[in-house]
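Weekly puzzle thread! Below is a chain. First person to post its structure in token form gets bragging rights.
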Amino acid sequence: MYVKWHIKPAAGIKNLHADEALRLAGENPDYHIKDFYDAIESGDFPTYNVHLQIMDPKQAEASGINIFDVRKPRVQIVQVKSHQMAFRLSPVLLLPLYKKHAN
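Winning reply:
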């Protein structure tokens, strides 16, 4: 079996505007780490959704996808000859980060 892990933040992905990122990089290059640790300290634990995509070797061969090419995301539905093969994301767990690293 081939398994692809998908780990994504439950709160979604949020980015800073370029000007704000440049300012923060000059003032505090570890801003995101501090924000992460502060969230844990305040009890607002960051959580991540973990999903798996599973494919057996015969499906991989029939799909025509190079599953080892990490530059391209694996598509979830692949048209193969006259039918479709679905490689859906299967939810595994919700991973909370509730403890800061000791060092």
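Puzzle host: Confirmed. Bonus trivia for everyone else. The first helix runs from residue 18 to 27.
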